[in-house]
Amino acid sequence: MPIKIPSDLPALDVLLQENIFAMDSNRAASQNIRPLEVGILNLMPNKIETEIQILRLLSNTPIQINVDLIRIDETTPKNTPKSHMDAFYHEFSEVSDKNYDGWIVTGAPLGLLEYEDVKYWDKMTELLDWAQENVQSTIFLCWAAHAAMYHFYGVQRQLRTNKLSGVFEHDVVQANDELMRGFDPRFWAPHSRVGEILLEDYEKVPGLKVLAQSDLAGTYISATDDRRLVFVTGHPEYDPNTLALEYERDLEAGLEPVVPSNYFTNNDPSQEPIVRWKSHGSLLLTNWLNYYVYQNTPYDLSTLRRREC
């Protein structure tokens, strides 16, 4: 949350020059406050696990949040009971007349498919275009980040020779951006993907800035200058054992997966994972909600206007 200080206090100008969010008393007096409306488009097969992971991150804020869980189509996922989907998830048609302060679009196990071969790609592009007009800020995770880059900017991902799996060190590139507020200069984050977009391809997109990257894992966080689109190529929401479960699943499927890097103690899958990304994941979502959503969203959501890419 911002700090509120008198309009004529000399410290205000200094703080603003350092990009520290300070609100003068005149602005504070004119603010209206209401709950935030956040939608989660959950594309992961195990809906319940992903819900818990993301809602846990969203809960670390004093701001009241109203959450809608949204499904891409009527198909019942193999790993989630139909009763759960019917009870808690909205069809897009049920919420398409709403405006949202924020949207989160999860990853999906679709990295080897061409985008146009994804069975719900037409619906996905419809939702992405709708979000431009009806959502203040949308954050895309993993596969969704690459899919959104392709849809909005025509940037194609490359397939890696080996799956990127593990927990990797990243450098903060834009330390003064509010999304990076409070981050250590180097921090850890999980990845689990086969696709990759090169740094130079991000840098070619006008109005897009890279905020954090890794020598081994590539670009991790990028965002548009207007804060409306945020692309996160990893999984800040992952639980301590998620990568281990994915590794065991791939072993059982005979895929001969590589051991997740920097994850198991002594890189030994028989030992416990080393958890060193949870604080960064919580901070990332808290910063997004505060600076990219709460501080920018209109009080009357019906005044949102389409953002041109």
Defining key terms:
309 residues; alpha/beta; two-stranded parallel ribbon; 10 helices; 12 strands; 25% strand; disordered N terminus
Task: Summarize the SSE layout with pairings.
Blueprint: E1 3-5, H1 10-17, E2 22-24, H2 25-30, E3 36-41, H3 47-58, E4 65-70, H4 82-88, E5 89-90, H5 92-95, E6 100-105, H6 121-134, E7 135-141, H7 143-153, E8 158-172, E9 186-196, H8 199-203, E10 208-214, E11 218-224, E12 229-232, H9 242-252, H10 278-294
Give your account of this protein's structure.
Strands 5-4-3-6-7-12-11-10-8-9 form a 10-stranded mixed beta sheet. A two-stranded parallel sheet has the order 1-2. 35% of the residues are buried. The chain has 309 residues and is α/β, with parallel strands linked by helices. The chain is 31% helix and 25% strand. The chain is globular. The two termini are 29 Å apart. The longest helix has 17 residues, at 278-294.
